Amino acid sequence: MNVAPDHTRLTSERLAVVGDGRMGRALVSALPAAHGPFGRGFDGTGFDAVLLAVPDGQIAVAASAITNGPLVGHCAGALGLDVLAPHEAFGLHPLMTVTHEGATFAGSGAAVAGTTTRALQLARRLASQLGMHAVQIADADRTAYHAAASIASNFLVVLEDAAEALLRTAGADRTILVPLVRASFENWAALGGRQALTGPIARGDEAVVSAQRAAVAARTPELLALFDAMCERTRALAARTVD
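^ that's the sequence the OP posted. Answer follows.
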């Protein structure tokens, strides 16, 4: 679902962003009313809300430095809002990868939460300003939500890197895999896993799978356990009747 950034409904709150890393810089660049990024130890004086874009392990420390009064939020996907106590708290986790080059938030999802209605509304307004589709995720579900995001993003990159490593032994580079990867992703997005699945396991050609396994074992033995695990999961998906 693509959502255009909403710059006509800018929040009246003065918002400070703490954390001069990838996420902090990307948020300040994308949010017209944001100030910063400020360093850790910033106390929030003069601001109505402070958004902490710091490593998960530093959130509690950064929150403890904020004076009483401002709403305090974090960008962590796996953490609940208890880490921000005793502040009136909100969560805004952009479901988007952020590199050193920045990020385009528009059109992506955002997990939001708030300890009060006011805090939740702020999180939703910030998501709207970024052009993101806000989904409320309860504290008890945050770890599962974040694990799903890691599988979808990080593990995908690891799998493609593994494919690239094996392909190099055949004298080719990853550029020839890119159209296949894009088509597979688009098919999954449109159809779901079962209907998008193709290849030898999907068609029951175990002889080809055995030959592939032998090639992996001979050329990239460090990938054999990964190959076997993915084959097992692929067989389970192929056997599933519905998505």
